[in-house]
Amino acid sequence: MNLTPTIETSARRLFPHQSPEQAFAELLLERAQKKLIQYQAAIRLFQTKYGQDFEVFRKHVISTEPSLEVEQDYFDWELAMTGVADMRAEIVRLKNSGR
Fold first, then answer.
1. Which of 3, 50, 79, 82 is the most buried (most CB within 10 A)?
2. pLDDT tens digits, one per residue of 42-51
3. What is the chain's mean pLDDT, rounded?
4. Which residues contact 76 (CB under 8 A, 6 or more apart)?
């Protein structure tokens, strides 16, 4: 890994028992976990707003002419659902890369 001296020094200070590569992987893992939490929070918000899970909501949206707000919520909710799956896979990948 080709790091600037400042970044390498910071990595060694903040992660004294890890190589710069391990420190970088740790930061990526933390970011993926943070994004997972954000996506999960968005899902909970939509579940509360509509009082149903995504599949029920999706079927309703597909079978009707939704308002612009409902349609936007559909896309945002779907993005959050995809994001959760992606971040879970990324977290597994990052955890396994350290082995």
1. 50
2. 999 999 999 9
3. 93
4. 42, 46
Residues 6+ apart with CB under 8 A from 64: none
Distance, CA of 78 to CA of 2 (rounded, Å): 37
70 token code pair: 């409902």
Note the Cα 59 to chain centre separation in Å. Answer: 25
Q: What is the DSSP string of 60-73?
A: HHHHS---HHHHHH
- Residue identified by tokens 């002419």 is 65
What is the span of the domain harbouring residue 54?
22-97
Query: Is there a domain that residue 12 lies in?
Result: no
Query: Is 41 among the domain residues?
Result: yes
**How confident is the model at residue 98, as a pLDDT?**
63
For residue 8, count other CB atoms closer than 10 A to its CB.
14
| Buried b / exposed e along 53-85 (16+ C-beta atoms within 10 A) | ebeebeeebeeeeeeeeeeebbeebeebbebbe
